[in-house]
Design a protein that fits this description.
The chain is an alpha/beta fold. Helices cover about 35% and strands about 20% of the residues. It has a 6-stranded mixed β-sheet. It has a 5-stranded parallel β-sheet with strand order 8-7-9-10-11, sandwiched between helices.
Length: about 325
């Protein structure tokens, strides 16, 4: 039986919505299944950086594993192919580079899930209306990044967020005010188009006004690769080249200023040895002063009947 295409389109629409909002997430797709797994070939789900899941990828055994691995994929920025099942089901036939995660629920099904990160398209906010600013906007748009051009007097902290890349190209017309507004939101990047001497003057003025030094230290000036005396078009190329280099190296992480909620550490289901999160939905059971968590009702019931067997490990599960 194929995947529910209505549900798959709902997932794609949610993915498009998250992308428009500039949020990072992972897309998980079932590419192979072995019955009686509840996941179907072609089933899709979205996992956000905070661990929210939209869509359907499998039952109680597969879902927490996919969420955990999807969050890892988002952090690393690299896709991952997962094989979910028991090690006996796959043996030595697993190609290198595939992550095998044993799960042992009552159903003896297995899943192969491809998890890929979807990172937000960089958003560049260019402050200023100079020919260089217009050229930079056009180049950024051609690269596939999002770009907004805001006149200096109209710019405020409300125009940006923690994911924004801000280039201040007011070029002497309200530099100080634009920088002060930009750093107030702690965006991912702030650069000032100015000479080193002019930059020191602007930052010194703002320091005297009481702008915190840790915010001013994040302003890059001069911005762009050093090409010497160049035209405004070449300055635009130099700025964009630097931003591309920073992003490719991982130094330009949009949204880095936003704190991520701490994720709970995984614990092991003593019955099936599956990794689960220690939360109320995972059926906690206390034995001998220790609280255990389970992937499903079956594992909890087995443990409840004879805890000593699974705590001592005398009987394989």
């Amino acid at each position: 039986m194929g995947a529910d295409m209505t549900g798959s389109w709902d997932v794609i629409e949610r993915a498009a919505e998250l992308a428009r909002r500039g949020e990072e997430f992972a897309l998980a797709t079932v590419v192979w299944r072995q019955g009686p797994s509840s996941g179907q070939q072609g089933s899709r789900a979205i996992v956000t950086a905070s661990g929210q899941l939209f869509g359907w990828i499998g039952g109680a055994c597969a879902e927490p594993v996919v969420i955990r691995e999807a969050q890892r994929v988002i952090r690393d920025g690299q896709p991952q192919l997962l094989l979910l099942g028991t090690s006996e089901q796959f043996g030595a036939a697993v190609p290198p580079g595939i992550n095998v995660i044993p799960i042992a629920c009552q159903s003896e099904g297995a899943l192969e899930v491809y998890v890929e990160p979807v990172l937000p398209t960089p958003r560049l906010v260019i402050v200023g209306r100079s020919p260089m600013a217009v050229t930079l906007r056009d180049m950024v748009t051609a690269l596939g990044w999002r770009a907004d051009l805001v006149d200096g007097p109209d710019f405020s902290a409300a125009d940006i967020d923690a994911r924004s890349i801000v280039v201040i190209a007011t070029q002497g017309h309200g530099d100080e005010e634009a920088v002060e507004q930009a750093v107030a939101t702690s965006p991912a990047y702030v650069g000032l188009v100015a000479s080193r001497r002019r930059g020191e003057s602007v930052l010194g003025y703002l320091a005297d006004r009481g702008v915190p030094q840790n915010l001013l230290d994040r302003v890059r000036v001069p911005i762009g690769m050093d090409l010497g005396h160049t035209t405004h078009r070449e300055i635009s190329v130099a700025i964009l080249a630097e931003l591309v280099r920073l992003r490719a190296s991982g130094a330009l992480v949009t949204g880095a200023a936003q704190p991520q909620a701490a994720q709970p550490e995984s614990v092991i289901d003593p019955v099936c040895s599956m990794a689960v999160t220690p939360q109320a939905s995972n059926r906690p059971f206390e034995h001998a002063g220790v609280t255990y968590y389970f992937c499903g009702a079956g594992c909890r019931s087995a443990f409840e009947k004879d805890p000593a067997t699974f705590v001592t490990g005398t009987v394989p599960c």
